Inverse folding.
C-alpha cells in the first residue's frame, strides 16, 4: 500500500522528471516542511524559493539571451558609427565574435573581471534615458520573436519545462517564488509573469541608475551607470534587502549562485538545487563557470540535477 502511494505521488507531480531518488528527495523535502505534524514544519510566511534565471530556468548558451539582444544593438550602433568598429565590445558585436563575449562571462565566473569592465562600459551606453516600460516591452517582443541560434527554438520556448513544473509544485504548497538573477531586472520583468508565472514584484536582478523625468510625464529613465550587480555576494544581499527572509529552496547553476545557495536555510531546513548542464544531445554540456559550485555541492551534499539523467524532457512541447 505504501509503495503504491509513493508511486502515485511521484506520478502526480514533476511529470517531466524521471522517477528517481532525486525527484523523491524534492517531494519529501516539500512534504516535510509543509506538514504541520512534521518536526521540520515551516510556516507559510517563511516558505521562500529563489531561482537563478540564466542556465537555471532557461538556456544560457551559446550566450545569455539578454546578451544576444545587447549584441544586436551594439552591432547596430557600430553600423551607424564606423569608429566604434575598432573598439570593444562594439568590434566583437560587429564581426559577430561571440566567442569573445563567452570568454568574458567565463572569466568572470572564474574570478577575472578585466574584460567584463570593458563590456559593461559598452552595454551601459545603451541605457541612457531609456524609459523602463520601453525596456520591458522590447524584452517581451524579443523573446517572443527571436530564435536561438542553434536550437532553432524561439527564445520563449527555451525555458526548462521541469523547472517550470517545480515552480508550480512549490506554489501548490504555499511557497512564494522569486527570480534572483544577474540578468537585468527591467529586462526580466518583460516576461517573468508570462513564462514563469512569477509576478514583476518578485523579480530581483541587476539594475542601472535611474532618473525621474517630470518633463516626460513622470517617466522613470535608465541611466548609463551601474546600480546593483545581482551576482555572487550581491544575491544574498539583495534577497535580504528585498525579501527579508532566507529562502528554504534555492536553485542555481553557476559559481555566481554559490553564495545564494549557501545562504539558504539558516536555522531552518534548506533544499539547495544545482542544475548541471551535461546533456550535449538535447541542450549543451559544459562546466566552465561552474567549477567552484560543483565542488562545493559535492562537498556538502547539495542536490545536483543532471539534465541528462533527471529530466525526461528539457523544453516545453510547444
Amino acid at each position: 500500500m505504501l509503495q503504491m502511494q509513493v508511486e502515485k505521488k511521484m506520478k502526480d507531480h514533476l511529470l517531466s522528471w524521471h522517477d528517481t531518488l532525486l525527484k523523491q528527495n524534492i517531494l519529501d523535502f516539500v512534504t516535510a516542511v509543509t506538514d504541520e505534524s512534521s518536526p521540520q514544519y515551516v510556516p507559510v510566511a517563511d516558505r521562500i524559493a529563489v531561482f537563478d534565471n540564466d542556465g537555471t530556468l532557461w538556456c544560457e548558451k551559446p550566450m545569455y539571451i539578454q546578451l544576444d539582444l545587447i549584441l544586436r544593438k551594439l552591432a547596430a550602433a557600430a553600423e551607424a558609427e564606423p569608429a566604434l568598429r575598432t573598439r570593444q565590445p562594439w568590434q566583437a558585436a560587429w564581426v559577430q565574435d561571440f566567442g569573445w563575449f563567452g570568454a568574458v562571462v567565463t572569466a568572470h565566473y572564474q574570478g577575472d573581471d578585466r574584460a567584463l569592465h570593458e563590456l559593461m562600459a559598452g552595454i551601459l551606453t545603451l541605457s541612457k534615458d531609456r524609459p523602463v516600460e520601453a525596456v520591458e516591452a522590447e524584452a517581451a517582443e524579443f523573446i517572443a520573436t527571436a530564435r536561438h541560434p542553434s536550437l532553432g527554438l524561439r527564445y520563449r520556448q527555451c525555458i526548462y519545462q521541469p523547472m517550470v513544473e517545480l515552480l508550480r509544485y512549490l506554489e501548490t504548497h504555499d511557497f512564494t517564488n522569486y527570480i534572483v538573477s544577474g540578468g537585468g531586472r527591467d529586462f526580466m520583468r518583460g516576461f517573468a509573469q508570462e513564462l514563469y508565472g512569477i509576478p514583476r514584484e518578485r523579480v530581483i536582478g541587476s539594475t542601472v541608475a535611474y532618473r525621474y523625468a517630470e518633463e516626460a510625464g513622470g517617466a522613470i529613465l535608465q541611466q548609463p551607470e551601474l546600480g546593483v550587480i545581482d551576482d555572487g555576494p550581491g544575491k544574498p544581499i539583495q534577497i535580504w534587502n528585498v525579501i527579508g527572509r532566507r529562502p528554504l529552496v534555492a536553485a542555481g547553476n553557476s559559481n555566481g549562485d554559490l553564495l545564494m545557495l549557501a545562504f539558504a536555510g539558516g536555522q531552518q531546513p534548506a533544499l539547495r538545487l544545482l542544475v548541471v548542464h551535461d546533456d550535449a544531445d538535447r541542450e549543451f554540456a559544459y562546466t566552465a563557470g561552474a567549477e567552484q559550485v560543483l565542488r562545493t555541492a559535492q562537498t556538502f551534499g547539495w542536490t545536483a540535477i543532471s539534465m541528462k539523467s533527471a529530466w525526461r524532457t528539457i523544453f516545453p512541447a510547444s
In short: The CA atoms of residues 37 and 232 lie 37 Å apart.
